[in-house]
Specification:
Blueprint (H helix, E strand, L loop, with lengths): L71 H24 L4 H19 L6 H25 L3 H21 L7 H26 L11 H31 L6 H29 L2
Length: 285
């Protein structure tokens, strides 16, 4: 599991329609053995970047002890740390009444740090926490600004984000939605298309076209916001799949940081879309 967000994952999904961890089942007690197709934590021949052949033998080393494998507790604790940092930074930006100029700078820095971590081979806790700080500053400043024109928008966005998280988790755990290769391809294509559309709209707005193509206000803005929430929800399901597969196949404990990173990015995206929707609806624009 390179990243819990498949847009940035080097492994993606395997040809059999499952996530990169899950084509076949691990052997009992040793998910690193036997090289089942699609398990990146099996032998080097199966694409395991963590198993290096022992010198002079050509065989991978013995599986690491159980304590070195990622667990759900690891994912929960790291996610709590990153999300907690986002909340603390956002609260500070709100209380200090950080301006939109600083918020914009923080957004670009957070994007740069996020992309840096996304393309790294190893998880960097310091880099991920720095991303969380700048993301929090951006979200806090924007929440404060929007809340002045649409009182209660920030709380509505928080409630909406929690509701989406709970709903997607329920749908995923009950297997009402099935995350496979087709699901991933659709989500990634939709995400790329949505991102490009938003960038084009922003470009038109920055160069004197008012609100660009009108994708951020009025009825079209509401539809775009709903589309953003839906697409981000698809990525949340992909995050859950990557976490589940990483645990099932004995991913190294450090991968929990990447899981936390992916979940934090997706939840921040959902929150921002809800924040913008609340602004449009409450402002009567």
């Amino acid at each position: 599991m390179r990243s819990s967000n498949p847009v940035f994952s080097r492994r993606g999904f395997s040809r059999d329609g499952h996530a990169g961890f899950q084509a076949g089942q691990p052997q009992a007690g040793n998910p690193y053995a036997a090289a089942p197709t699609g398990n990146p934590y099996a032998q080097p021949q199966a694409g395991n970047p963590y198993a290096q052949p022992q010198q002079g033998t050509g065989f991978p080393p013995a599986a690491p002890p159980q304590t070195d494998r990622m667990t759900m507790d690891d994912v929960v604790s790291r996610t709590a740390m990153t999300l907690g940092t986002v909340v603390l930074a956002a609260t500070g930006a709100w209380v200090l009444n950080v301006g939109l100029g600083i918020a914009l700078v923080a957004a670009f820095v957070a994007f740069g740090l996020g992309m840096w971590q996304a393309f790294k081979r190893q998880a960097s806790p310091a880099l991920i926490m720095a991303y969380a700080v700048f993301e929090g500053v951006f979200l806090g400043a924007m929440s404060n600004f929007i809340n002045q024109y649409a009182p209660g928008a920030a709380m509505q966005a928080v409630i909406g984000t929690m509701a989406v998280f709970g709903a997607v988790l329920f749908l995923y755990k009950s297997r009402i939605i099935r995350v496979n290769a087709r699901f991933a391809r659709f989500a990634i294509a939709a995400g790329i298309g949505y991102g490009l559309l938003c960038l084009v709209n922003l470009g038109f707005a920055l160069f004197g076209a008012g609100d660009g193509w009108g994708f951020r206000t009025g009825g079209i803005g509401i539809l775009m916001g709903i589309a953003g929430v839906v697409i981000a929800s698809l990525f949340l399901a992909l995050d859950f799949k990557q976490v589940e597969d990483g645990i099932a196949y004995g991913a190294p404990r450090e991968e929990a940081w990447l899981a936390a990173f992916g979940l934090t990015m997706t939840l921040a995206w959902i929150y921002f879309e809800f924040l913008r929707l609340a602004f449009i609806l409450n402002s009567g624009d």
